[in-house]
Amino acid sequence: MGYLPEITIAEAIRRIQKGDLILPAIQREYVWKPGQVVGLFDSLMRGYPVGGFLSWKVAPETASRFRFYGFMKDFSAFNNRHNPDGDPVAGQAVTAVLDGQQRLTSFNIGLRGTYAYKLPRAWSNLASSYPARRLYLNVLGEAEENEAGLRYDFRFLTDTQLAATDADPEHHWFPVPRVFEAEKMSQLWAATAQAGLANHDKAVETLSQLWESIHTTPSVKFFEETEQDIDRVLDIFIRVNSAGTVLSYSDLLLSIATAQWRERDARAAIHGLVDDLNSTGVGFNFTQDIVLKSGLVLAGISDVGFKVKNFTTDTMATLDREWDAIADSLKVAVGLLGDFGLSTATLSANSVLIPVAFYVHHRGLHQKYREAVADSADREALRRWTLRSLIVPGVWGAGLDTLLRDLRQAITDHGSHEFPTTEIERRMASRGKSLALSTEQVEEILDLGYGKARTFAVLAVLFPHVNTRNIHHVDHVYPQALLSKKELKGAGHDAEGVSRLQGLRDLLPNLQLLEMSVNISKSASPPATWAESMYPSPDARQAYLERNEIPWLPSSLGEFEAFFTDRRKALAQRILRLLGTGAAAATGEGSAQAADMAKTIDDELAVSDDE
After folding, report:
1. How far is Cα 77 from Cα 118, in angstroms, rounded to an integer?
2. C-beta of residue 550 within 8 angstroms of C-beta of residue 571
């Protein structure tokens, strides 16, 4: 093990092109953002060191026993985030990069490829929202003053953005890959002349500096391991990569699984499952962390923490052996979360997936469980517990591993036939994670706002008539448009009054759940007017009011504040009746404790009204 002679970046990239530099399966994937790539090229131009690299010289007989990947060239956050397979040529030694993949990949993308990331405010599920961008350098001037301290103006630009700068006399965006392609300086001059820059001293100086940084300056220094013992290499990799804060322990677990699984390609299996889960329903944003943690819990591993000591051969073999069943249970569980009305926008804690998946796994449930009439009561119990656990702050925060082990044990001991809500909540309470609400927590829930993930969970659990299998929107009872600054000022409210009423507008007492089609038709009508057209008969209107705990509907702006106060009191009573005393409240039963809490809140609201 020792340092090799330094090479240029161009030489390193050519080795990547030839497949001589590859990635061992224990490496994670590319995670750098465009700004980090730009910063790396800025450092290169300024002559700053780009850091050392750790490599493993893999002999032909060793290479044949392990899995390798190639470097990313054309990265897309939409549909090309996974490294390509890298198959070493039989009988040929290769060099596997153990540390420095992110930097080398960034050079490879900047000098040879593209980086596609989502346009602002664009739809995340459309390929057109992720246009490919190439790296360019403005050769006519330096970067504007910026917080990152960048001197050189490197940018990833789309073809459309590049075309829009044609008439800008202060910028000329020269494609960085052209500099890499010019293996000789004379080729660079030809490209410079073709761009009309041959007589521009600043441009010639800047391009010369970039060319020399890439082609002539030795800046890549490898420290090479030559031992063929995989355990030693794995130990080196863990020691190097677990010292930092960017590489998570789940990355290490995935890496080790990839190296040790025999029945499947762990990286492909896990990333494929993450993609499948996230495409369920309206869409989720689960990570490999959640999937791997789920694997540890569902496989019955005693310690579910991401700790190096847990990455044993036995653990990896268990995950490998049981992965198909684990994946099936996770798919059913995510389907259930979608049925509960949850998605990226409304799921406030991804970790809730794990106990739901373990319950599915423990009972051997399949997709038909989601619709079977015989299981409707059990699904409702699971739904209510899931949503209630998302309402109380801190449940899925600190102490997660201990909580997951307790929930797993509760389900193992009491969940063979039905979801054991009472036992689960008893164990949660013993860990300081009670789902029974205090007066202060009820007040906090009443102040939840529009657009917050927990708001959907509260409304969904408070109003059991809502069929969350249908798409619902969180809707303003008194429309946003009628409480705009323009409308409020027009009604004679001063700046203080406008601020106060707009603060109330987006809070829980002015929110309800409406099916998507109904919400679209509601538009910006005053609530009383809309209800009369939507529910023509008095009985139908009254049923709507009772279902949604709405005491009455305002017909004008002047009635909004009184309506807000009355509904806040009504919702406080409903929250306490359904949620205030834990598992018993989940059945809708009242209690003396809930009554006392309701009186306390009523008194506080009365004081607030007087003030």
Report:
1. 7
2. no
Whole-angstrom distance, CA of residue 57 vs CA of residue 42: 30
Nearby residues of 553 by Cβ (< 8 Å), 6 or more positions away: 477, 527, 528, 531, 545, 563
- What lies within 8 Å, CB to CB, of 223 at 6+ separation is 1, 2, 3, 4, 52, 53, 54, 55
Closest CA to 17 of 113, 147, 131: 113
Neighbours of 225 (CB within 10 A): 20
Which element (helix H / strand E) includes 174?
strand 173-175
* Dihedral over Cα of 233, 236, 238, 241: its sign: negative
The Cα–Cα gap between 58 and 49 comes to 27
Q: Crossing angle, helix 439-446 and helix 592-610, to 10 degrees?
A: 50
The pLDDT of residue 588: 44
Query: What is the rounded radius of gyration, in angstroms, for the C-alpha atoms of the chain?
Result: 30
Burial class for 47, CB neighbours closer than 10 Å (0-12, 13-18, 19+): exposed
Do strands 154-157 and 173-175 pair parallel, antiparallel, or not at all (unpaired)?
unpaired
pLDDT attached to residue 607: 44
Which of 267, 287, 268 is CA-nearest to residue 277? Answer: 287
The token duo for 547 is: 């279902």
Residue with tokens 């801190």: 394
Q: Decide: helix, strand or coil at residue 431.
A: coil
Closest CA to 316 of 270, 383, 373: 270
The DSSP call for residue 147 is: T
Output the pLDDT for position 146.
87
Residue with tokens 């059913």: 332
Strand partners, 175: 136
- Judged by DSSP in three states, 171 sits in coil
Distance CA 71, CA 280 (A): 30
What pLDDT shows up at residue 179? 97
Which positions of the chain have pLDDT values less than 70? 1, 231, 238, 241-253, 255, 259, 308-311, 468-469, 516-523, 580-611
Quick one: tokens of 465? 């008539």
Half-sphere exposure of 181 (CA within 13 A, CB side): 12
- β-bridge mates for residue 221, sequence order: 52
Of residues 369, 309, 285, the one with CA closest to residue 333: 369
CB 541 within 8 A of CB 397: no
Q: At 95, phi and psi to the nearest 5? A: -115, 120
Handedness of CA 55, 61, 66, 70 (dihedral sign): positive
The mean pLDDT of the chain is 87
CA distances to 492, 525, 529, 551 from 537, in Å: 35, 18, 13, 17
